[in-house]
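Dear support,

I submitted the protein below through the web form. The confirmation email said the job was done, but the results page showed an empty box. After a refresh the structure appeared. I'm attaching both so you can tell me whether what I see now is the final result or a partial one.
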Amino acid sequence: MAEARHMEVGATITTTTRRLTREAALGFAREFDPQPMHLDDTAAESGFFGTLTASGWHALALTMRLAVEAQPFGDQPLIGAELSRIRFSRPILPETELSVRITSEAIETGKGRHAYNILVVETLDARTGDVLIQQRWRMLRT
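What the results page shows now:
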């Protein structure tokens, strides 16, 4: 039987780290977010950010990966019901080391037999601790 663990309201966990490499950033951009600021140094230099940046969607995918690996609910899967309030604080540069801080904000009783964990999920620059992305997840409580 799978181990179920529930984060109590106010509890926080911080994940391990993962580097968002230049190679991975370019590969993700080519496949999923082919914009000049993610694909080409020269084009990026003359663009809005002035430098090559990783796709925010790539950083969000790595956020999910780190959250899954951290197993905030033990062996139970992370089953998302809603993502909201996604805020990017600043561009994420290739070669940034990321970690994720997950804080249980509330537990909601749903209609029927389900309840939900409301989580604040922050993607951090693991070197500085700066918050790069903040979002709110509503996760099924199994």
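Response: this is the final, complete result; the empty box was a page-load delay. The mean pLDDT is 94.
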